[in-house]
What does this fold into?
Amino acid sequence: MTNEILLRDVNESDLPIFYEQQLDPDATKMAAFPSRDREAFMAHWAKIMADDSVILKSILFDGQVAGNIVCWEQAGEREVGYWIGKEFWGKGIATKALSEFLNHVKIRPLYAHVAKHNIGSRRVLEKCGFKMFGMELFLDTQGENRAEEYVLKLNE
It folds into this structure.
């Protein structure tokens, strides 16, 4: 095993893997984000893959699709987010992938939101230079509080 981490453009064949990864109940709890059914998931990905302003990459670990990393605009700010399949947690993949991604995506400032209880993801962001910027309540589509989130910002 080389533990090699590569970023590459997202292929249509990655989507079923991403779909299965986002179904994991431990992962959705950690992300404080509900899984989508197949139709909603595929529609969401078709939309972001068609948007030229979105930068998205598949994360490969030893040749396997371990997750994805995305940069998009929201409310006039550039956001970054990532999803790592549960079977790949705890191997330093997110940190290495985000670090590599930030070498290619030069847009600053960048913002990231992380559920308050997701200490691992917060550490990934901090290791990559993100600093605490604030806190928000993340509301669901019905306007109900779903999670407290830290907002982190990368300036350089």
Observations:
- The two ends are 34 Å apart (CA to CA).
- The chain has a mean pLDDT of 93.
- The first strand starts at residue 5 and ends at 9.
